[in-house]
Amino acid sequence: MIDEVERWILSAHPEIETLDSDVDLIEQRLIDSLRFVQFIVLLEKLCGSPIDVATLDIDSVRTLSAIQRTYFA
Prior knowledge:
mainly alpha
């Protein structure tokens, strides 16, 4: 499932071929505020559970490694 997350991110950034699992997706602006809601919806779809953005720890979605640990472990 993390592969789908990576594909979604890369589809918006054709200048990037691959993502290291520890790249800071937010700091590098690979996920910006305009796409953040779409990103959360994608995660909800893939993990099968709602994500409460009011209590979301931003570090849980900062890297592919963190996303894997938090939502797909």
